[in-house]
């Protein structure tokens, strides 16, 4: 069944804003976006829907139980799409505290608020209600050269970020099993696309190359990620919320495995064609010391989502990357103001931790 009143957490972030735009453009749902607006939250990403009568923004912290209770009572959602998180691996290595607070304590607080809300809700709302907990494939740890992550792969997180997301996944599943909260879980591979914060691998490389700056690649650049265009992820999340079974988890991925070095070369090749410089952009590539605890390879088997719910990625990596590069070329109004502070207090932000 299709849900009608959706509370999106983290809707000012990269994926959350794609979800809000998708819901307003492609569905009839009313969308309430609850976001704290950390450095990663940006209301400019919602400009094209901000005047829609079906969209509303509330600035709030998912750790603030009192506010969450008031929001649930006022919005009366039949679906929650929980994306609010601290999401950058390198930042989690430098300072993990916010990751524990938001990803673990915040998820706990939101689950409790949802449970209290449902306890008081009418039978129709209780029947319809779904809580989609949005997570990452990084909870599974690193693969060797072979194999794919499935929904039954053992959790084995390596970074403070992925450990905090793994903890939040366990909480969400426990709230389903223990309290009967109708939770659905999704674990997705690395996303890319428009409105991606410039500290992540793909936008960082596009913008550095455009500025003639070095393109720093961790180690040999051999780490493999499985890339998914963000709008394909947004469609998958809406499908999982509406058609997924409570208590089930679904892996989401684009079957687009690339080494980091391949990704950087692909960006350079597109830029060589669209904005030719004197010399090939790839000459800006510099290999730098590797990230500690750097997982070698992530790759997703999304066949459960494909066969049970009929989802398919629409973009190939080539088409999605071309769209992404063109978007950054056309939308400096969005990224220019963010560029100044990108490196403040962070490691380099090279592998696009989910
Ligand atoms: P993001 O960092 O771009 O956005 C996170 C958003 O959450 C921001 O708008 C921020 O302001 C908000 N936020 C942070 N702390 C908050 C709090 N305490 N209360 C309310 N809002 C808060 O992240 P993203 O890349 O869009 O990722 C969204 C979700 O998807 C995360 O849960 C992440 O773990 C998951 N995920 C991301 C990827 C990826 O490749 N980016 C892949 C798989 C899963």
Automatic annotation (TrEMBL):
Enzymatic reactions: dTDP-alpha-D-glucose = dTDP-4-dehydro-6-deoxy-alpha-D-glucose + H2O
Gene3D superfamilies assigned to the protein according to its UniProt record, in alphabetical order: NAD(P)-binding Rossmann-like Domain, UDP-galactose 4-epimerase, domain 1
EC code: 4.2.1.46
UniProt entry keywords in alphabetical sequence: Lyase, NAD
Cofactor or coenzyme needed: NAD(+)
Gene Ontology molecular-function annotations: dTDP-glucose 4,6-dehydratase activity
CDD domains assigned: dTDP_GD_SDR_e
Pfam families, sorted: GDP_Man_Dehyd (PF16363)
Domain of life: Bacteria
Domain NAD(P)-binding stretches: 7-323
Broad class of enzyme this protein falls into: lyase
Keyword NAD carried by entry: yes
NCBIfam families for this protein: dTDP_gluc_dehyt
Similarity section: Belongs to the NAD(P)-dependent epimerase/dehydratase family. dTDP-glucose dehydratase subfamily.
Name of this protein: dTDP-glucose 4,6-dehydratase
């Amino acid at each position: 069944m299709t849900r009608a009143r959706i509370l999106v957490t983290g809707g000012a972030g990269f994926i959350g804003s794609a979800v809000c735009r998708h819901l307003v453009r492609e569905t009839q749902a009313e969308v309430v976006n609850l976001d704290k607006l950390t450095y990663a939250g940006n209301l400019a990403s919602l400009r094209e829907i901000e005047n829609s009568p079906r969209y509303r923004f509330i600035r709030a912290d998912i750790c603030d139980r009192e506010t969450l209770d008031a929001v649930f009572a006022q919005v009366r959602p039949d679906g929650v799409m929980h994306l609010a998180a601290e999401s950058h691996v390198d930042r989690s290595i430098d300072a993990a505290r916010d990751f524990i607070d938001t990803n673990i304590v915040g998820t706990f607080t939101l689950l409790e608020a949802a449970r209290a809300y449902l306890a008081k809700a009418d039978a129709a709302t209780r029947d319809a209600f779904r809580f989609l907990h949005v997570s990452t494939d990084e909870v599974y740890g690193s693969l060797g050269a072979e194999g794919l992550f499935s929904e039954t792969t053992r959790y084995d997180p390596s970074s403070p970020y992925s450990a905090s997301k793994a903890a939040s996944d366990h909480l969400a599943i426990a709230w389903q099993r223990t309290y009967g909260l109708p939770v659905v879980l999704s674990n997705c591979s690395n996303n890319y696309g428009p409105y991606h914060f410039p500290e992540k691998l793909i936008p960082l490389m596009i913008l550095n190359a455009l500025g003639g700056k070095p393109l720093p690649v961790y180690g040999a650049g051999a780490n493999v990620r499985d890339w998914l265009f963000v709008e394909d992820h947004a469609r998958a999340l809406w499908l999982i919320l509406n058609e997924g079974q409570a208590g089930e988890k679904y892996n989401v991925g684009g079957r687009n495995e690339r080494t980091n070095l391949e990704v950087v070369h692909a960006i350079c090749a597109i830029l060589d064609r669209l904005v030719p410089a004197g010399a090939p952009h790839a000459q800006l590539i510099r290999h730098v010391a590797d990230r500690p605890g750097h997982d070698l390879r992530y790759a997703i088997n999304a066949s459960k989502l494909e066969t049970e719910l009929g989802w398919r990625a629409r973009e190939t990596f080539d088409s999605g990357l071309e769209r992404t590069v063109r978007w950054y070329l056309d939308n400096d109004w969005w990224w220019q103001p963010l560029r100044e502070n990108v490196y403040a207090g962070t490691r380099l932000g090279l592998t696009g931790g989910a």
